[in-house]
Amino acid sequence: MKKLLLASAILCSYTASAQKLSSTERKIVASVQQNMPQSEKLLEQLVNINSGTLNVKGVREVGTVLQKEFDALGFKTEWVAMPETMQRAGHLVAQHKGKKGKKLFLIGHLDTVFELDMPFTKYTRLNDSTATGQGVNDMKGGDVVILAALQALQANGLLKNASITAYFTGDEERGGKGPESRADFIARAKQANVALAFETATNLHTVATARRGSSTWQLKTFGTAAHSSGIFKPAVGYGAIYEAARILNSFRETLSQEQYLTFNPGLMVGGSEVNYDEAKARGEVVGKTNIIAPTASVVGDLRFLTEAQKDAAREKMRAIVAQNLTNTKAEITFSDGLPGMAPTPGNQKLAALADQTSRDLGYGPVAAGDPGSRGGGDISYIAQYVDCLDGLGVSGKGAHAAGETINLKEFPMLAERAALMIYRLTR
Fold first, then answer.
1. Best label site of 44, 228, 293, 354, fewest CB within 10 Å?
2. What start and end residues bound the annotated signal peptide (predicted)?
C-alpha cells in the first residue's frame, strides 16, 4: 500500500510539472522518447568507430555518419578542411537558416582521447542504466543529444523557421597548431546570439556558465658548473636545480590559494646536459652527483577563469623568476592556449532557462557548477562574443579513461531538456 501511495505521489508530481509544458512541448518530449532506441543505436555506431584525434580517417568517418543524419533533417552540411601540415581531420558544419528567434550555435566534437595505439573498447551495455565505450561520455553522447533534440523538433515541424548552426570540431581533445584550427569556428559563432555546448554533464542538475582557460609556460634556469663541494659558496652559487626549486616553491607559496587558479609543473629536467623535445614532450639529461647542474628546464600549464586573472598570475610569476639565487639566472616564457569562459550575466540567463525547462519537465532544479571542476573546451574560444552555456551533454563517469560510462537513465531526460531549450530559444 505504501509503495502504491509513493508511486501515485510521484506520478502526480510529474503530471503537475508536465502541465507546465505546452501541448507542442509535450509532443516534442514524446518524439524524443519514441526515438530513443534509434538514438542509442546511433550512439553505439559512433562509439564503435575509433576517432582518436590523430586518427584522421576515424574522425572523418564519425563526421560522415553525423553528416548523413543532418542531411536528412534538411541542414546544409560541409567539411571545413585544415592545412595538410596540421594533420587534423577538419570540422563538420551543419547549418539551417531561418528568421525566427535566437540564432543558435550548437557545439560538439568528433574526436576522442583514445588513439589507435590504445586498447579499444566497444559500446557495451553493462546494465539497464549504464553503458561503456570509448567516447560514449566525452562526447559522442553529447553529439547524439544534439541530433536527438533536432530530430524531435523536425518531427513536429518546428525547424523550418529556426536559425541553427551545429559545429563539430575534429580536434577538440588535441587542437591543431595555428589560428586556422579555430578561425572558421569563431567566425561562424560571431553570427549567432547563443552558443550551447554539449560537453559532458556533471549530472542532471548542473550546467557550466564558466570554464577555465589554459596556457603553458616554460622555465629555464642557469647556474655555474663546478665541483659539488663548492656549492653555496659565493663564487659558485646554488646551481640551476636549486634555482628552479626556489622558483617552483615560490609559485606554490604565492599563488596556490587563489580561487580558480592552478599551475602544474608537468615535466622537469636538470643537470650537466639537458635536452627537451617539445613536440614529443620528452626530456633527456646527463648529470653526475658531484657536478653542480648548470642548467634546468621545467614546463607546465596555467589554468585561470578570466584573462585578467591569467595576466596577473603571469606578472607575479615573472617577479618571482627575477629574484635569483647567488650566481644563477632564470627566464620564463608563456604560450597562450585556450581562453577562459567567464560567468557573464548572459550565461546566467541561459542557466536560468535550463533550470526552468528542467523544472517544467519535472526533473528538478539546475544550477551553475563550479568552474574549477572542469577543464577547457571549444566554447571558450567564443565566450567573449556570444552568450554561452556548456555541460549540456550526457552524464556518466570516467571521461578520458578506460571504462568511461554513460548514464542511460538520464540520457533521454537530457535530450528532452535540450530539445525544449532549443525550441524555446528559436520560437
1. 228
2. 1-18
* C-alpha pair distances (Å), 20 with each of 3, 355, 412, 414: 27, 13, 19, 18
Phi and psi at residue 98, in whole multiples of 5°? -155, 175
Quick one: pLDDT at residue 19? 56
* Reported confidence tier of residue 297, pLDDT bands at 50, 70, 90: very high
Domains of the chain are 21-211+341-426 (3.40.630.10), 213-338 (3.30.70.360)
Task: For the chain, give the percent of residues with pLDDT over 90.
Answer: 86
Per DSSP, helices labelled H in 97-179 are 140-155
**Euclidean distance between CA atoms 29 and 294, whole angstroms:** 67
> Could you count the other beta carbons within 10 Å of the beta carbon of residue 97?
12
Which residue pairs, CB below 8 angstroms and at least 24 apart, start in 330-336? Answer: 330/219, 330/220, 330/221, 330/222, 330/243, 330/244, 330/247, 331/219, 331/220, 332/217, 332/218, 332/219, 332/220, 333/217, 333/218, 334/215, 334/216, 334/217, 334/302, 335/215, 335/216, 335/217, 335/218, 336/215
Tell me the longest C-alpha to C-alpha distance in the chain.
88
Please tell me the pTM assigned to this model. 0.85
Reference 47, options 150, 107, 125, 117; nearest CA is 125
Q: What's the confidence (pLDDT) of residue 10?
A: 37
Q: What is the mean pLDDT of the chain?
A: 93
Instruction: Categorize the per-residue pLDDT at 13 as very low, low, confident or very high, splitting at 50, 70 and 90.
Output: very low
Q: What share of the chain is helix, strand, coil (3-state, %, to 5)?
A: 40, 25, 35
